[in-house]
Design goal:
The complex is a heterodimer of chains A (108) and B (195).
Chain A (H helix, E strand, L loop, with lengths): L1 H13 L1 H4 L3 H23 L6 H20 L7 H24 L6
Chain B lengths: L15 H27 L9 H4 L2 H26 L3 H31 L8 H32 L7 H28 L3
Classes of the chains: A mainly alpha (108), B mainly alpha (195).
Amino acid sequence: MSTDTHTHAHEEAGDHAEHGMSTRGYVNIAIILALITALEVATYYVDFGPFFLPSLLIMMVAKFVIVVSYFMHLKFDNKIFSFLFYSGLVLAIGVYVAFLATFHFFIR
Amino acid sequence: MADTAHAHQTSTGLSNVKLGMWMFLGSECLLFGGLISTYLLYRGRVSEGPTPSQIFDIPFTSVSSFVLLMSSLTMVFAVSAAAKKDDRGTNLWLVVTAMLGATFVGGQVYEFTAFYNEGLGFSTSLFGSSFYTLTGFHGVHVTVGIIMLLALVAINKRSKVPGSKSETVEMLGLYWHFVDVVWIIIFTLVYLIPV
C-alpha cells in the first residue's frame, strides 16, 4: 500500500512535462484567447443587440475555462485539484449570487 | 534528486504543496467574489464625480488586458523550461513574465492617476470606492506575483531553490494564471458591461 502510494507520488512528480501540451499548442491557445479578447472588445463598439450581455458572459467563461484547463493544467491533472478549485469557485458564485439577490440586484 | 524531493509519501499520493496551492486559489475565489459583487452593487451609485462610462478608456485597458494575457503564455514557457531542467530558459521566461506584469501594473498606476485627475478619488462615490478596492486588490496581487517571480530568478541563479525546482515554478505559475483569470472576469464585468 505504502509502496504504491510512494510510487504514485513519484509519478506525479515526474510527469510535470508530460501533463501539458507542446509549445505550439500553448501558442495556439494564446492565439485563441487573444481572438476572444478582440471579440469582447468589439462588443463595446458594435451593437450586438440582445446578444450583447450573453455573448460577453459566454466569452468570459470560455476564457476562464481555457486558462484554468490548459495553462493551469487542471484538465491534465488529478481530479482532486479540480474539486478543490471548483468547489471554492462554486461556493463563491452561490454565496455572492444570493448576496446580490438580497439587494434586488437582478430585478432592477 | 531535488526534483523528486517533494514526492515523499502522502496520504493522497499527491503533492501537499500543490493541494495547498489549489485550496488557496479556491479561497481566493471567495475574496475576489466579494469584491466583484460589491462593485456590481455600487457601480451605479455616483452621487458626485464621474460615472464609469465617462472615465473608462476601453482601448487602453484592452491593451493592458492583452499584455497580462500574454504573460500567462510566457509563464507557461517558464514552467515548461523548469520541467525540462533548463535553468537559463526558466530564468528568461520568468523575467519576461515579470516585465509583462510590471507593464500591466504600470498601466494600472497610469489609469488610477488619470481617473484621480478627472475627479474620481477613493471616497468620491461608492462607485469610486468599490472600483479602486477591487482593481487595487488585483493590482497588489500582480505586484506580489512580480516580486515572487524576481525573487525566484535570484534564488534560482544561486541554485538555492529549496525542494523541487520545477514544482516551485509550477506553483508560482498557478498563482500567476489565477491573477490572470481574475482579470478576465474584472475586464468583462467592470469595463465592458455598461452600468
